[in-house]
UniProtKB/TrEMBL annotation:
This is Sugar phosphate phosphatase. Keywords: Hydrolase, Manganese, Metal-binding, Methyltransferase, Nickel, Transferase. The lineage of its organism: Eukaryota, Metazoa, Ecdysozoa, Nematoda, Chromadorea. It catalyses: beta-D-fructose 6-phosphate = dihydroxyacetone + D-glyceraldehyde 3-phosphate; L-glutamyl-[protein] + S-adenosyl-L-methionine = [protein]-L-glutamate 5-O-methyl ester + S-adenosyl-L-homocysteine; beta-D-fructose 1-phosphate + H2O = D-fructose + phosphate. It comes from Caenorhabditis latens. Its cofactor is Mn(2+); Ni(2+). Belongs to the damage-control phosphatase family. Sugar phosphate phosphatase III subfamily. Pfam families: ARMT1-like_dom. Residues 26-420 form the Damage-control phosphatase ARMT1-like metal-binding domain. One of its GO terms (cellular component) is nucleus. Subfamily III proteins have a conserved RTxK motif about 40-50 residues from the C-terminus; the threonine may be replaced by serine or cysteine. It comes from the Eukaryota. Gene3D superfamilies: 1.20.930.60, Uncharacterised protein PF01937, DUF89, domain 3. InterPro entries: ARMT-1-like_metal-bd_sf, ARMT1, ARMT1-like_metal-bd. GO terms for biological process: DNA damage response; intracellular phosphate ion homeostasis; methylation.
Length: 440
């Protein structure tokens, strides 16, 4: 694993020790809050878990609570990251990465790998892997999705918005719809983008109900879009895919998912639209192998969401049934490579996950959803705003790719001079626009 390189001087990695930054606020406030919410959940569900697993689960709960009390203290007092105590899944790999980071992380040898001083992305990924480990080594709770309740609630809180999206999809994707095949793609993509606003990790798991449907937001929030390459995507990628001059039957689109709940519903709308309107023959959706960053999509979330679409209304019911047929016919496939839960920037995917990288080279289009994927694309660095996106991605390009992201971290590249001037006029030196989730 590369620890340092010339880009550390050009665009330093984001770290949590710089007061006033969102990374600092995240380490100081958000992470302890997330750990506390898990403690509260276990306390609240104790009787339910005892009824489900027997009194033996009390020892598991006590062990987890002890670990989380220590974890919260260590975060708040900036202690060094500990080792994982198990080898399952990617546990051994994490010990290797931790050792590498401890010996090569800093420009000098005077600081340890701690919660505030370590690279924000690396430490944040470690935090969620440590939480998973605490459950994994118990006798009864190793398969528990401790973020499941908040993800399901997010879905149920947005049933009207989901039904509106499904109705729009069913109308424009019907075989007899009197529209050109490219009609609606802008709306569908922007809808998938603005679904990313309902991010539970941003609130520590608290409710974050969108007041406006993502379909409505696709047109009403146009002024908040800082970089809009949809027309270029249509001309260079989606148009040729739909025209399909060579009559290919293996056109593949990959979507690297972000949050479950209403955002996942919107991403499934996007997947179905691409298939129904002839842009792809197969859509691969990539999720997380374990509970991750509070609200990220796991396979269970994916399956549950498809089943629960019927709760949103009649159009969503039709949509859900169509998705089940797609899944049965392997036109929509869920995958969860371990690379997606690693702390690695994507430019080293070819080295760290060569099989995944090779698979993606056969994709016609790769769509990255959300802030975490964007952070990994650009290496979670403090780029100058006018640095080209291509430069920030450091050569990563297994196939044509596109990022749909609302800003929730202080890293962005590829802004035009006009966008930068607009932001400076509105915010001056205030960087809150980079972390509010209001801009994309």
């Amino acid at each position: 694993m590369n620890i340092t390189d010339e880009y550390d001087h050009l665009a330093p990695k984001l770290i949590g020790k710089k007061e006033g930054t969102f990374a600092y606020y995240t380490v100081r406030d958000r992470w302890p809050k997330i750990v506390t919410s898990l403690v509260d959940q276990l306390a609240r569900r104790r009787a339910e878990l005892i009824e489900q697993y027997g009194t033996g689960v009390e020892r598991d709960i006590a062990d987890i609570l002890e670990k989380f009390a220590k974890l919260r203290y260590e975060i708040m007092t900036d202690k060094a990251l500990c080792n994982l105590c198990e080898d399952r899944l990617d546990g051994r790999k994490w010990r290797e990465m931790l050792n590498d980071m401890r010996t090569g992380i800093m420009p000098n040898d005077t600081e340890e790998l701690t919660y505030f001083k370590g690279p924000w992305l690396f430490v944040e990924c470690f935090l969620y892997r440590y939480i998973y480990s605490a459950f994994l080594i118990t006798n009864h709770l190793g398969q528990m999705d401790y973020f499941e309740e908040s993800k399901k609630k997010n879905f149920m809180d947005h049933l009207p918005q989901i039904e509106e999206s499904a109705a729009f999809l069913m109308k424009i994707s019907a075989k007899d719809a009197p529209v050109h095949e490219l009609f609606g793609i802008n709306t569908i993509l922007k809808s998938s983008l603005w679904g990313n606003r309902a991010d539970m990790s941003l609130t520590g798991g608290d409710d974050h109900t969108m007041k406006m449907s993502s379909i409505a937001a696709s047109s009403k929030l146009a002024d908040y879009v800082l970089i809009d390459d949809v027309n270029e995507l249509i001309c260079k990628v989606l148009g040729p895919l739909q025209i399909n001059e060579k009559k290919l039957k293996n056109r593949r689109v990959d979507i690297v998912l972000d949050n479950a709940g209403v955002e996942l519903a919107g991403d499934l709308v996007l997947a179905e639209f691409l298939l129904a309107r002839g842009f792809a023959d197969k859509v691969i959706v990539h999720g997380k192998a374990i509970p991750w960053f509070v609200s990220d999509t796991t396979e269970n979330d994916f399956n549950w969401t498809v089943d629960q679409l019927k709760e949103a209304g009649p159009e969503s019911t039709k949509f859900g049934e169509q998705l089940k047929k797609r899944i049965e016919n392997m036109e929509i496939i869920f995958k969860c490579d371990l690379f997606w839960i690693s702390p690695h920037p994507y430019y080293i995917m070819e080295k760290e996950a060569p099989e995944l990288f090779e698979e993606l080279t056969s994709s016609s289009l790769l769509i990255f959803k959300g802030d975490l994927n964007y952070r990994k694309l650009v290496g979670d660095r403090d780029w100058d705003l006018d640095t080209s996106f291509k430069t920030a991605c450091r050569g990563f390009a297994p196939c044509p790719f596109f990022a749909l992201r609302t800003l929730k971290a202080e890293t962005v590249a590829g802004l035009s001079a006009a966008s930068i001037d607009k932001l400076l006029a509105k915010f001056d030196e205030d960087n809150s626009w980079m972390t509010s989730g209001e801009n994309s």
